[in-house]
TrEMBL record:
Entry keyword set: Signal
Native species: Bizionia saleffrena
Keyword Signal: yes
Signal peptide: 1-25
Protein's name in the database: META domain-containing protein
Residues covered by the DUF306 domain: 160-262
TM region positions: none
Pfam families attached to this UniProt entry: META
Length: 266
């Protein structure tokens, strides 16, 4: 066997061995047990960009809480409860629909995060969710609780101008409206929307909690446009409760199916 053939076979064997070793690599030392064992986050969520939908902060001490579609992260200035990060478990809904809980194991002990809605005078600017993070150590039966407030934040990917593409599953064209297609401008910071609905201008506020999205009716002009799909579009927009967003499209829906689909303006 000549030297060149030996060299080729040796390189091939090295590549195979390297790939096998990579496929069976153990979790890194920095990965906590809770991150490995807690698998409540769905596979579909793991394919989405990480998007924070709730932030909390302390009222009696300095701490922060971040809940995304993939992880719950907590940090504080308490030396015995500095931080943790776990996969986001399923939501536990109380009999009172305004209370939601998340629970799971961490290196600091079992944790229960409780989010309770409270009414405030200014729903848009003030945090109106009482937030509690409670740890329980089963070994020594000790517990520690952090109390504060929090608020839901909108998916930053929604912040754009969106042009109507279809109502339900039926494509629309300019001829269905008055000279141009309806468009929607979403402001995720102020949780508001504005735009053109095919004949009239429209605008209002947005209610957002995790993957729940509702467009609350607000201002509107009062022009009359016969043979126009504006009323149908507005009805479908108001009926929307869920969304799916990509780099180019925004799909709104409700439990009955698709409501409206938009294309992102360039």
């Amino acid at each position: 066997m000549n030297k060149s053939l030996v060299s080729v076979l040796t390189c091939t064997l090295f590549v195979v061995l390297f790939n096998c070793k990579s496929d069976t690599a153990a979790p890194s030392e920095n990965t906590t047990q809770s991150e490995v064992s807690n698998d409540k986050t769905s596979d579909s969520d793991l394919t989405k960009p990480i998007s924070t939908y709730f932030i909390g902060f302390g009222s009696d001490s300095i701490w922060t809480l971040d809940i995304s579609n993939q992880f719950i992260s907590f940090s504080s200035e308490d030396s015995t409860f500095e931080n943790f990060k776990i996969k986001t478990p399923g939501i536990i809904r109380a009999a009172d629909a305004n209370i939601k809980r998340y629970q799971g194991p961490t290196a600091l002990g079992d944790v229960v995060v409780t989010i309770a809605k409270q009414e405030t005078e200014d729903q848009q600017s003030k945090p109106n969710y009482k937030t509690t993070v409670e740890f329980t150590n089963k070994k020594d039966k000790t517990s520690k609780s952090f109390e504060g407030f929090g608020k839901y934040v909108m998916d930053y990917r929604l912040n754009a101008t969106w042009i109507l593409e279809s109502i339900g599953n039926v494509a629309v064209s300019v001829s269905d409206f008055n000279e141009k297609l309806p468009f929607l401008i979403i402001d995720t910071v102020n949780k508001t929307y504005s735009g053109f609905s095919g004949c009239n201008g429209l605008g209002g506020t947005i209610f957002s909690e995790n993957d729940l999205l509702r467009f609350k009716h607000g201002m509107s002009t009062l022009m009359a446009c016969p043979d126009n799909k504006e009323k149908l579009y507005r009805k479908k927009l108001q009926a929307s409760t869920q969304y799916k967003v990509t780099d180019s499209h925004l799909e709104l829906s409700n439990p009955e199916g698709a409501t409206v689909t938009f294309k992102k303006a360039e």
